[in-house]
Specification:
The chain is of the alpha+beta class and about 450 residues long. Helix content is about 50%, strand content about 10%. The chain has 4 domains: about 150 residues, Beta Polymerase, domain 2 (2-Layer Sandwich); about 90 residues, Orthogonal Bundle (Hydrophobic Seed Protein); about 120 residues, cca-adding enzyme, domain 2 (Orthogonal Bundle), CATH 1.10.3090; about 70 residues. The strands form 3 sheets. The chain has a 7-stranded mixed sheet. It has a two-stranded antiparallel ribbon with strand order 6-7. A two-stranded parallel ribbon has the order 10-11. It is elongated.
Length: about 450
């Protein structure tokens, strides 16, 4: 067995061997490829299994799914497949392919190719290596472009000068690997990268695709470093046509999230990416945010949450106002999505504001009344409008701990309804002599 694979998790190697043997039996050549090979050479654990198959990949995928008793998902359009094993392990399969780009920044035309073609179509030398997993050559490294040398020299290098022209999303990828691995973008590669930005090729990429690549920055361990570097290279025009993004707010949020994530309940990597993303845009106006949402095709929830973060400073100011009652905090926070609330949480270090968001999420938003609409109807007030308003007022009183038991709710409901009903009657008669104070009701 090769020394590279010696460092890998045993289960990973056993599985690779199994797939290799099965490929032998069925006359296929199979390889581990791309980023996984890079990570194997870097001695990383917890690897995905990305496999390319020379030949009819989908037939191979169907056959091996049966052998491994795996769940199979086929993506006919891309000629790829995903197997999910019983223990949750995922194996991605693709056919070895060659790619032709009709013009800059468009998706390539894909056709079957050899493993050499497949490596040549890739972004950087460090991602353009393969490991054979067929039995006879098991563990053999195919490194046609000196990827392992570049790994040793901590160097990001493209395979050919058209790389960033063909696929300008690689600008973002170069920065991501540079920052993640602490490597340097090699001089010629950097020149090509800057050239591609100067020629506005990054603007030719369809924004949703560009954004999908940008989003990966927010999943990296050191988000600020990544974003600062791409801003420096003027490569953030997918977020703002002039490259104006708010690094300062991002840095504040990143530090705050580090503290929040010490609480295990919050320590889920995937949950934070929109928070970092929003922080870059907090000071944008509604028009800019709407335009961006549409361009990059954010889903409704993200789009709504993004719009809401514009109110961040005003909300936090109100949260720090000691005079506010719990019911007022409830009314203040109720319109916001869970994500916008998480953003506010990451945007303040004021103890009272934090406690109030916590209270809202874990207590206030779960409080329900013991009485319901029917109870109130039975009191002889049939109007659903009035009953609805009464229930809302009761809930606010309950949040303020003014109603302890169901009997208190019923008693209070009587008072509220009597007052509301008589006012409605007066309004219907064109008079309003009640002189009642509205604010008193809301209290
Ligand atoms: N690739 C490429 N050009 C792109 C995207 C991907 O050449 N624009 C190739 C690279 O060889 C890459 C592989 O496809 O290694 C897999 O892509 P992806 O899963 O996005 O990247 P990884 O290298 O696996 O990186 P990560 O560790 O971030 O998952």
């Amino acid at each position: 067995m090769s020394s590279y694979l010696d460092k890998c998790d045993k289960g990973f190697v056993i599985l690779a061997k199994k797939i290799g043997h099965f490929a032998d039996e069925n006359g296929y050549k199979v390889y581990i490829v791309g980023g996984v090979v890079r990570d194997i050479l870097l001695g990383k654990k917890n690897l995905d299994l990305d496999i390319t198959v020379e030949g009819d990949c989908l037939t191979f995928a169907k056959k091996i799914a049966v052998r491994l008793k795996a769940q199979l998902k086929i993506y006919e359009q891309f000629q790829t497949a995903t197997l999910t094993l019983k223990d949750g392990v995922r194996i991605d399969l693709a056919m070895t392919r060659q790619e032709k780009y009709a013009s800059a920044a468009v998706l390539p035309e894909v056709s079957p190719g050899s493993i050499n073609d497949d490596l040549f179509r890739r972004d950087f030398t460090i991602n353009a290596m393969a490991i054979v997993i067929n039995k006879e050559r098991f563990g053999e490294l195919i490194d046609l472009y000196k990827g392992s040398e570049d790994l040793n020299n901590k160097c990001i290098r493209i395979l050919h000068p058209r790389s960033f022209i063909d696929d300008p999303t690689r600008i973002l990828r170069a920065v991501r690997f540079e920052q993640r691995l602490g490597f340097q973008i090699e001089a010629k590669t950097l020149r090509c990268l800057k050239d591609s930005i100067r020629k506005n090729l990054d603007l030719k990429v369809k924004p949703p695709r560009h954004f999908a690549e940008f989003k990966k920055f927010f999943l990296e361990a050191d988000v600020s470093k990544h974003v600062a570097r791409i801003k420096e290279l003027r490569g953030v025009r997918v977020l703002d046509s002039r490259g104006n993004i708010d690094l300062e707010t991002l840095n504040v949020v990143v530090e705050r999230v580090k503290i929040i994530r010490q609480n295990k309940d919050y320590d889920k990597a995937g949950r934070w990416w929109p928070i970092y993303f929003f922080s870059l845009l907090e000071k944008k106006n509604t028009h800019q945010l709407e335009k961006l949402s549409k361009e990059v095709q954010l889903d409704n929830f993200l789009s709504l949450s993004l719009m809401q973060i514009r109110e961040c400073q005003s909300v936090i100011r109100q949260l720090t106002n000691k005079a506010k009652r719990d019911s007022e905090i409830y009314q203040l926070l109720k319109p916001f999505t869970e994500l916008a609330l998480l953003y506010f949480y990451a945007r303040t270090d004021n103890g009272l504001a934090i406690k109030r968001i916590d209270d809202f999420v874990s207590i206030f938003s779960h409080i329900t009344l013991d009485v319901n609409g029917d109870d109130l109807k039975n009191m002889g007030y049939p109007s659903t409008d009035v009953i609805g308003q009464a229930l809302e007022l009761l809930l606010l009183k309950k949040i303020d701990k003014k109603l302890a038991a169901k009997k208190d709710e019923l008693k209070e409901a009587q008072i509220l309804l009597k007052r509301r009903f008589s006012r409605n009657m007066e309004n219907m008669n064109g008079t309003n002599r009640s002189g009642e104070s509205r604010s008193e009701e809301g209290s």
